[in-house]
Specification:
alpha/beta; Nucleotidyltransferase, domain 5; 6-stranded mixed beta sheet; 5-stranded mixed beta sheet; 9 helices
Length: 238
């Protein structure tokens, strides 16, 4: 039998990750919890539900101290909620560099989170609906560098920039203007900070930061899944 299973809602359905101690054995996705568990090669002794439980109010440790689930984070001002999978990825990032201090930008589906990390804690966050807006307006995957710079310097003209990009059919500019406006609003998070990005390819925020000469390490969520599960499992004694 496997030692334990991490189970939770994900974009592809319900994801189940079978673990033996700190080793990821397999992962599957299905339309329901029962189907995901049945799809695993072996049954599980214990189940850790990702996203289950009351979100931890920021500031809060990345690694949980106890509990049958791994809840996400919440913040009162500005109002924010961050999912349990993001907390897991952050744990995976810190697993190889526990003393890291800085800001991590995480793309969670249609939301972009900027999370300040210090001393193993998520201190504060600022989140944006930029990915959702890019999808809704039909933007391109990769942003235009000139558009990023334009909206970063003049974010008050965002609506006008978007209209011009729409009329001209410049979808890369449309994406660039949206990301530039996000960078302008999140400037206090990334300016002068150590920055990392967790996002699926092509990671347009990382592209935008590098265009502003901001060095940043880039990771995919899949890169951080196994080390995150191992770190959380160890913290919970699984």
């Amino acid at each position: 039998m496997t030692g334990w299973v991490a189970l939770g809602l994900a974009p592809e359905g319900v994801r189940a990750c079978a673990m033996k101690g700190g080793r990821l054995l397999e992962q599957v996705a299905a339309g329901s919890e029962s189907a995901a568990l049945e799809a695993l090669s072996e049954p599980a002794d214990r189940i850790l539900r990702i996203g289950d439980g009351t979100p931890a109010g920021l500031p809060a440790p990345i690694l949980p101290a106890s509990g049958p689930g791994l809840p996400g984070f919440s913040q009162k001002t500005p109002a924010d909620v961050i999912g349990g999978w993001v907390r897991l990825w952050l744990a995976g990032f810190l697993a190889s560099q526990p003393d890291w201090d800085g800001v991590i930008n995480v793309t969670e589906g249609p939301v972009s989170h900027w999370v300040h990390i210090s001393a193993g804690e998520a201190v504060s966050s600022q989140s944006f609906l930029t990915p959702r807006l890019v999808d809704a307006l039909g933007g391109a995957e990769t942003p235009d560098a000139d558009a990023i710079a334009d909206s970063l310097s003049r974010p008050e003209r965002l609506a006008a920039h978007l209209r011009a990009a729409e009329v001209s059919g410049n979808l890369q500019a449309l994406t660039g203007h949206l990301i530039g406006a996000e960078l302008a609003a999140a400037r206090a998070y990334w300016l002068g900070q150590q920055v990392a990005v967790i996002a699926p390819p092509p990671a347009p925020v990382a592209t935008a930061l590098k265009a502003q000469s901001v060095p940043c390490a880039t990771h995919t969520p899949d890169d951080l899944l196994a080390p995150g599960l191992a770190a959380v499992g160890k913290a919970l004694g699984l």
